[in-house]
Design a protein that fits this description.
The protein has 924 residues and is an alpha/beta fold. Helices cover 44% and strands 16% of the residues. The chain contains 33 helices and 30 strands. The chain has a 7-stranded parallel beta sheet, with helices on both faces. Strands 10-15-14-11-13-12 form a 6-stranded parallel beta sheet, with helices on both faces. Helix 3 (32-42) packs across helix 7 (116-136) and helix 5 packs parallel to helix 6 (80-98). The radius of gyration is 29 Å and the shape is globular. It starts with a helix and ends with a helix.
């Protein structure tokens, strides 16, 4: 029965002959029962869609029907996940009906999700089509589905062996375990489809690397290569993520028997990322975020937020920290009687599973007026009643903005409504650029980590545990995975040397070989494997407990812990710090804890030792919790600043305001941005502003504190600035022979030293050879807390330190103690895989070394000029950087006072044409 016939039979509010149906061929490619179910479910949307399918479904279903690998990129709520499953369900129900014995008792489709909650949600959503289609078929067809992850109990796991799901929903970690499960791995030999959901959130980290290797190991087990389908809402570059999804085939052996040409498997890209209408705007409670009192800003913000919530059915409020999500909900309930526990809630990763699931259930049925969250609801559950998303502060990337705002209007045809509220002057510009870029279809790039030794070690161990196998097969398997496509023979030797414990003294440290590596003996030899040629290099497992060690220790998500802080003098406990916060600390840094200032001295395991001090804090307490600004958005901000300066130069501030009104900004935001740049230019000139062609450095002599501050306006994001600041600080310390303090933010960094020391930071930036950045960073990282923490994480991932062994579970703090005992020894070993991976991960993934090299190459080529200005007080663009050195920004009243002081100095110098805060606000 054709599409129009089915529509004519349905009870819809339109004439089937009068509506446009441009995708009837897609429907007619499906089985009759699947067609009927589809029209019943989605026929009412035909007038709005111009057909029976959404754009991603129109393109993806035919591809998957043909067995073509595909990346489906489309907004949240556009039906991309159903586009993947429709063709799969159609094929499984066809076989169930046509095959005499029906489907085998094994897995045909793997659905891999980054989140347990998302896997649970898809599991529930599959029940509707499965039961609906089955009801329309003769007999009692059974296409089973089940979910398996870390929370699945033993009884459910045993049941899956007896009655195996045809569609298995799982996570990357559980899939890796299943590949080594003696019984269940046989159930995976029939897999024909792999669906990877929200692939962008996996590709940019080691969980994605872990999955890429698991999928290549799966390729070794199955009869024919499974069709791979990736789903993502916001991702760029599409080609790289598609290549990551499908992996590589390799050409015939090269002359050396190992070197092979990597060729990406065939795949198609379904790019329907911009098929939804967006209604987004940046709002600011005032046009002056410095002179308007903090309590006035807060009052206006909450009044605006309350009005937005009242005007919509269900509102989701994103903040950038978990504490921020709690604070916004608390203040809403305190200020307005309308909000209570029945109609408002909070959702983030620190809450219990039960609390999160309760909020998720209420979101699905639309019973909550407002929910505040940090990042935990960016992905995952379907929330059909959300019609507004409010983002408080900058989400730091266009991709994150679109992902969050896309939670609203969760049906195609509905306009996506989002409001971003800026409460910080430094975030005004980045939010303005971000929203404009979102409207233009720009998405930040995802950077895939490459050639990680630790993840490779896990999977080589897993392969060796399953079977003795040729070393050639291990190499081929790794090199087919996209992150290892360029893994060299030397890198394999480094990896194998670690896994065979081929280092003198390593076993004395209780680090034992994981595998053996040897040539196959002749038939009369001690170790002969008849299925392999004599002399062929083989690999096998070492140790009787190898499988148990593997199954209980693999994965890539690091354990974390809090560190107890003690004073050195009297060993008094004064509180605790999250260990990730220690990444920012070096000896002498000052932090705030419990309202008191402490100078960091050193850490031993999970204990931090510090001295009380009256010195000002150098590291803000929120540093480790906030998302970093994306490098691509940072570059866009610099281009924006260049364009803005051109308009200022030609026609002044009024022309800038006219131009800014072309952006999705409210009037307060327009005036605040124009005012900030006007003050900046009048105080320090246009050359004090960094652009895509200029890197501005300003020098301030702080005689009160007897310090010299260098503010480097490198607006490339915190990862970039963390890396570049370490290089510059390393060179400054050597040049001036003094201790150097560093403070890092998204829009730049500060270098501080005693007033009687002086260096030319601009000249250092001009002189840094891009080819020396990696070696400089490696030298700068020696002895740091950052190196110690990542060595522990990588030693644990590499199974050098075992989290679980013989029934004992080693806590993260105990792992840290073990790693500190091993680090010095490991650093003395030549090309030791765990050390090499630790430096690689920090330098490449955490400190954005490639981006730093690119910018410094532009400096050396003369494409980016480095300009240094001497100032008596920080310029408006440096207020945020200067505040990091002046006070802990968690203390809002201190920050406001410091900002006010900076601003007063600038206005005194240039003349205050705006009047006082009250007058300025009242006049606008």
């Amino acid at each position: 029965m054709g599409a129009r016939d089915l529509l004519a039979r349905g009870d819809f509010d339109f004439d089937a002959d009068s509506v446009e149906v441009d995708d009837a061929a897609v429907l007619e490619s499906l089985e009759p029962e699947v067609r009927e179910w589809w029209v019943e479910q989605f026929g009412e949307y035909v007038p709005d869609n111009g057909g029976l399918f959404t754009p991603p479904q129109k393109e993806a279903i035919p591809l998957i029907n043909e067995g073509t690998n595909a990346l489906v990129a489309s907004p949240t709520g556009s039906g991309k996940t159903l586009s993947a499953f429709t063709a799969i369900l159609n094929e499984l129900f066809r076989r169930e009906r046509e095959w005499d014995e029906g489907l085998d008792n094994s897995v045909y489709c793997l659905y891999v999700s980054p989140l347990k909650s998302l896997a649970n949600d898809i599991h529930r959503n599959l029940e509707v089509p499965l039961s609906g289609i089955a009801d329309k078929m003769d007999g009692d067809p059974s296409v089973r589905h089940a979910i398996r992850h870390g929370d699945t109990d033993d009884a459910a796991r045993r049941k899956m062996l007896e009655e195996t799901p045809h569609i298995l929903n799982t996570t990357p970690e559980t899939l890796a375990i299943l590949l080594n499960s003696p019984k269940f791995k046989q159930k995976l030999e029939t897999v024909e489809y792999v669906v990877v959901d929200e692939i962008h959130s996996l590709a940019d980290g080691k969980r994605g690397t872990h999955l890429a290797l698991s999928l290549e190991r799966l390729e070794n087990m199955v009869e024919s290569s499974p069709t791979r389908i990736g789903c993502s809402a916001t991702v760029e570059p599409l080609s790289d993520i598609a290549d990551f999804l499908v992996g590589c085939e390799r050409s015939a052996d090269g002359a050396d028997g190992d070197a092979r040409e990597a060729t990406v498997r065939d795949r198609e890209i379904v790019d329907t990322r911009f098929v939804r209408e967006f209604d987004i705007e940046l709002q600011c409670p005032t046009d002056d975020l410095i002179d308007t009192p903090r309590d006035v800003v807060n009052e206006r913000f909450y009044d605006q937020l309350h009005d937005l919530i009242s005007d919509h059915t269900n509102t989701l409020v994103f903040t950038n920290t978990r504490s921020g999500a709690e604070r916004v909900l608390h203040n809403l309930r305190e200020r307005f009687a309308e909000y209570d526990e029945d109609n408002s809630g909070c959702h983030h990763g620190s809450l219990s599973k039960e609390a999160r699931q309760s909020i998720e259930a209420d979101l699905k049925d639309g019973s909550l007026d407002v929910v505040t969250t940090s990042t935990s609801l960016e992905l995952g559950i379907d929330m059909p009643h959300i019609d507004l998303v409010v983002q408080v502060g900058s989400p730091k990337s266009v991709a994150s903005l679109l992902q969050r705002v896309g939670r609203a209007g969760h049906q195609l045809g509905q306009t996506v409504a989002g409001r971003v509220v800026a409460l910080d002057r430094d975030e005004l510009v980045e939010c303005a650029v971000m929203l404009k870029k979102a409207e233009e279809g720009f998405v930040d790039r995802v950077f895939v980590p490459e050639e990680a030794y630790d993840v490779a070690a896990q999977h080589v161990y897993g392969m060796a545990i399953n079977d003795v196998r040729p070393e050639r097969e291990v190499r081929e398997t790794l090199r087919r995975a996209y992150p290892y496509r360029n893994f060299s023979d030397d890198q394999f030797e480094t990896l194998f040397r670690y896994l065979t414990s081929d280092y003198e003294g390593l076993e004395d440290k209780n680090v034992y070989a994981k595998i053996w590596r040897d040539e196959n003996d002749p038939p009369d030899g001690e170790y002969h494997y008849p299925e392999f040629d004599v002399g062929e290099p083989l690999i096998g497992k070492r140790g009787k407990l190898a499988r148990v060690i593997y199954m209980t220790n693999i994965g890539t998500i690091p354990d974390s812990f809090t560190c107890d802080v003690f004073t050195r003098g009297d060993n008094e406990w004064v509180g605790d710090l999250d260990e990730s916060y220690l990444d920012t600390l070096e000896k002498g840094d000052v932090f705030v804890l419990g309202g008191q200032n402490f100078e960091f001295q050193y850490r031993r395991g999970s204990k931090v030792y510090a001295d009380r001090t009256s010195a000002r804090p150098t590291v803000p307490s929120w540093f480790s919790e906030r998302l970093p600004l994306s490098y691509d958005l940072g570059r866009s901000i610099l281009e924006f600043q260049g364009d803005l300066l051109e308009r200022f130069a030609k026609r002044g501030k009024p022309a800038v305001r006219v131009w800014l009104r072309e952006f999705p900004l409210d009037e307060n935001s327009v005036r605040a941005i124009a005012r900030m740049f006007d003050e900046q230019i009048r105080y320090a000139g246009p050359e004090s502003v960094s652009t895509d062609r200029r890197l501005a450095v300003e020098v301030e002599l702080d005689r009160d504190e007897y310090e010299r501050h260098y503010y480097v306006h490198s607006n490339y994001g915190r990862k970039f600035n963390d890396g570049l600041s370490r290089v510059v600080a390393y060179r400054c310390a050597n040049a001036a022979n003094t201790n150097v303090s560093v403070a890092v933010a998204d829009h730049g960094f500060t270098i501080s030293m005693p007033l009687n020391r002086k260096v030319d930071v601009a000249e250092i930036l001009r002189d840094v050879d891009p080819g020396e950045v990696r070696s400089d960073l490696r030298a700068a990282l020696e002895g740091t807390e950052l190196l110690q923490r990542y060595f522990r994480i990588n030693a644990t991932r590499s199974l050098m330190i075992l989290k679980r062994y013989k029934g004992y579970e080693k806590s993260a703090s105990e792992q840290q103690v073990s790693s500190e005992m091993l680090l010095g020894f490991a650093e003395g070993l030549e090309d030791f895989a765990v050390i090499e991976e630790t430096y690689r991960e920090i330098i490449e993934d955490k400190l954005a070394v490639s981006a730093i090299e690119d910018v410094l190459a532009d400096v050396q080529a003369g494409d980016v000029a480095v300009v240094q200005n001497r100032v008596d007080t920080p310029t408006p663009k440096a207020f945020g950087l200067a505040t990091l050195m002046a006070s802990d920004v968690v203390l809002a009243e201190d920050e406001s006072a410091v900002l006010q002081e900076f601003h007063d100095r600038v206005l005194e110098e240039i003349g205050d044409e705006y009047g006082n805060a009250g007058g300025a606000s009242a006049a606008k």
